[in-house]
Amino acid sequence: MREEPDIIGAFYERVRRHVADALRQYQDEQKAVSHEMAAKGLGNSGPHLRRRVGVLRKWMVALTDQCFEDVMRLPGTQSMHRMVHADFLADQLGAFLTQAEGDVLIFDPGPAASNAIKQEIRPIREGLEHDLRDFQAQLWRPRSQGKAASETNNTVNLHGSNVGSIQQAGEGATQTATVHLNVGAVQTALDEFAAALDASSVSDEVRSAAMIEVETIRPQLKKPAPNVSIVREGLHTLRNIVEGVAAGLLTTKLAALLLAAGIAIS
Fold it and tell me: Rounded distance, CA 231 to CA 218, Å?
């Protein structure tokens, strides 16, 4: 008599393999992100950490979809499979998320920024819990297939007397730019902005996201030679976060901060 194939055992093994493969590819992508951001001078920065959160979010969605789709391929009654295997899926996907979270905060950005990043990660875990409930209730639909990843590139232009010479690029020419910051003025303006942010009525989400940038910029301003790329990127991101949701004193302090750094506010 021929032995029946262990369909459920094979399914469990396949899901475990999905998790292991996803974790390996996720870690490889995080390494690539680290190299890319370091090459831009943004190794220890808020933008780097947010990129890492984005990678975590992407892989969590992709792995969840892959595992759920495997359940849907099992023969028999779908509603039964969704109920019977729910705990196994929750354990496997939860284990991936727990391990993957450890690859986000690869350096200590300070207590405020760390808390802000953890707040950005929390919706990923809550999203997984929501997906598991929807899957059991047969409400889940795959999201990771056929969606092209989008990336926004922002450029900040510095203007004013604190911008060094820029050579016009001609044939055989090398184009360079040297940016000089008035560190004292930027530090004072940043402190005043942070105080206004703390006293403002913006949402906790906006406040936390803004504090990531504040805590990224502050250490640079204390260095003998601040990394202008980090300061510039942080201020640009700060403007994107705050503009449109803030008013009154906070908007005034943001404008003063940008002006102190020589960033056009028009």
Answer: 9
Q: What is the pLDDT of residue 189?
A: 92
Question: Residue 120 in contact with residue 211, Cβ under 8 Å?
Answer: no
pLDDT band with cut points at 50, 70 and 90 for residue 77: confident
Cα–Cα distance between 231 and 214 in angstroms, integer? 9
DSSP string covering 75-102? SS-HHHHHHHTHHHHHHHHHHHHHHHHT
Q: What are the phi and psi torsion angles at 8 (to 5°)?
A: -70, -40
The dihedral through the CA atoms of 217, 222, 223, 228 has a sign that is positive
Q: Using alpha carbons only, what angle is made at residue 205 by residues 115 and 39, rounded to the nearest 5 degrees?
A: 60
**What is the reported pLDDT for 5?**
56
Residues 98-121: pLDDT tens digits?
Answer: 999 999 988 887 787 788 888 889
Distance (Å, whole) CA 258 – CA 232: 10
- Nearest CA-CA partner of 59 in 90, 89, 88, 99: 99
Is residue 174 within 8 Å of residue 167, measured between CB atoms? Answer: yes
0.70 surpassed by pTM: no
Q: What is the pLDDT of residue 178?
A: 44
The three state secondary structure string of 11-39 is: HHHHHHHHHHHHHHHHHHHHHHHHHHHHH
In angstroms, the CA 161 to CA 30 distance is 39
Question: Mapping DSSP to helix (H, G, I), strand (E, B) and coil, where does residue 172 land?
Answer: coil
- Phi and psi (nearest 5°) for 101? -55, -35
Greater confidence, 249 or 264? 249
Which amino acid would we find at residue 198? D
Q: Which two tokens stand for residue 156?
A: 């900040």
List 177's β-bridge partners, or say none.
166
